[in-house]
Amino acid sequence: MGQELEGKLALVTGASRGIGAATAEALAAKGAHVIMVARTAKAMEEVEERIHAAGGSATLAPLDMLADGAIGKLAQAVGSRWEALDVLVLNAAVLGTLSPVEHIEGKEFAKTISLNLLANQAMIAAFDPMLRKAARANVIGVTSSVGANPRAFWGAYGASKAALDTLLGSYADENENAGRIRVQIMDPGATRTKMRRDAFPGEDADTLKGPEVVADAIVAAVLGDGPTGGRLSA
């Protein structure tokens, strides 16, 4: 098994299950030390056990990304231990309730925007100094097809992802000439995750690809030479 990321530091949000957990395992399998961020410590411990059993290493960072000052404290803690951050995977997201636009509930919409968009901007702002210290940093944001192609009843979630796409595209453009930070957007498509099950409760999960397929695509993007600002699919 190749160790192309040996000596590199990666941080993955939403790492307790699904695509985030699979990505943490895939990055660790390539030799990266992975900082796993999620609210649920117990679920992350199970992922960490699998990483260690496979010979990898990880650090758990139980965190509510919406808690006041939490992201800044995380960046301070990580920065006090490591100098540079080589890989940042922005995966944490909430689906919210699927509903017609006129029935979107304000508080829930605000939470969706806060986690899916504002928290990701805060993560970029907090870790940008460490990303700039890497020889070559990769930022990958996990998006959704509904961000680019609006769909009935997906207005709240789709709007949050469309805004995230724009945010990441701007960050890519701002850093293109320097060539130190490469930003890419991963559209996983239909994947066997809890969020997908919540959105399509009657769907046969066996017909969907596993989160490990998306994780492998993310790792391939990190190791590849694709352009910054690119939109990827798994």
Description of the molecule:
The chain has 234 residues and is an alpha/beta fold. It has a single domain, classed as NAD(P)-binding Rossmann-like Domain (Rossmann fold, 3-Layer(aba) Sandwich), CATH 3.40.50. It is built from 8 helices and 7 strands, in the order βαβαβαβαβααβααβ. The chain has helices at residues 18-29, 41-53, 70-81, 106-132, 145-148, 155-175, 194-199, 211-223, and strands spanning 9-13, 33-38, 57-62, 87-90, 137-142, 181-187, 230-233. The chain has a 7-stranded parallel β-sheet, with helices on both faces. Helix 1 links the parallel strand 1 (9-13) and strand 2 (33-38). Helix 1 packs parallel to helix 2 (41-53) and helix 4 runs parallel beside helix 6. The longest helix has 27 residues, at 106-132. The protein is globular, with a radius of gyration of 17 Å. The protein starts with 8 loop residues before the first strand and ends with a strand. 44% of the residues are buried. The mean pLDDT is 96.
SSE diagram, text form:
Blueprint: E1 9-13, H1 18-29, E2 33-38, H2 41-53, E3 57-62, H3 70-81, E4 87-90, H4 106-132, E5 137-142, H5 145-148, H6 155-175, E6 181-187, H7 194-199, H8 211-223, E7 230-233
Parallel strand pairs: 1-2, 1-4, 2-3, 4-5, 5-6, 6-7
Helix pairs in contact: 1-2, 1-8, 3-4, 4-6
In short:
The protein is of the alpha/beta class. Helix content is 46%, strand content 16%.
